[in-house]
Each structure stands twice: as C-alpha cells, then as structure tokens.
C-alpha cells in the first residue's frame, strides 16, 4: 500500500510540476521591458561598465528567475537563456573585452636583457673563484 501511495504521490507531483513554457515566454518580456526602462536612466556610453547598472541587471535576473519559477520551470533553462541572450545582444553587443596582444621586444632589447644576467653571472663566478684562490689575504 505504501508503495502504491508513493507512486501515486510521485505521479501527482510530476503532473503539477510540468514546466509551462508558454506562460514563461509570455511573462519574460515584462522583465525585459522593465530592464529596458531602467537602462534608459544610464548613459548608453556607460552600458559596458557593469558598476553603472549592476542593480538593474540584478533586478532583471531576479525577475527572469521568478517568472521561470512561477511557470514551474527550472532556471536557467534554454528558453530563459535565449531570452537573456537577446537582452545581452540588445544592450551589450558593443562591449567586447580588449585582449592584450603580447609581442616580443625588438631584438636589440631582447639580446641586452639576456646578456646582462649572463655577464653578471660570469663576473660573480670569476670574482668568487679569484677570491677563493687568494685566501691568504682573507
């Protein structure tokens, strides 16, 4: 009897917890509209500076999570991620991280940077050997 009751209860939970994707997709644009209204307060030149709008973005994230949960969907899910990606494309498409392109210094500088430690090492070895041979002075 317990096994049948457990199976029945599990079946009931599964039926009530199905993700209502259409409801979620219906509600998510309200989060985007709210975020868009808040972003109007921020100068568009500062849209790449997260500190300027972090609170607005946090509200947007919480809104999408709340709407997904209200529709019995887990968060993030592929549909919510697609919506969030659309918002990112709308507001942050011009925000690219500038990667530093490292390159070797010119040969003259590189040779100098290599030869100075080599020459100092040779000079120190020579000085140590010379001093050890002249132990009569020390």
From TrEMBL:
One of its GO terms (molecular function) is coreceptor activity. Its main location: membrane. GO terms for biological process: calcium ion transport; cellular response to hormone stimulus; G protein-coupled receptor signaling pathway; intracellular protein transport; protein localization to plasma membrane; receptor internalization; regulation of G protein-coupled receptor signaling pathway. InterPro entries: RAMP, RAMP_sf. It is found in: Cell membrane. One of its GO terms (cellular component) is plasma membrane. It is a single-pass type I membrane protein. It comes from the Eukaryota. Keywords: Cell membrane, Disulfide bond, Glycoprotein, Membrane, Receptor, Signal, Transmembrane, Transmembrane helix, Transport. Belongs to the RAMP family. This is Receptor activity-modifying protein 3. It comes from Ciccaba nigrolineata. The lineage of its organism: Eukaryota, Metazoa, Chordata, Craniata, Vertebrata.
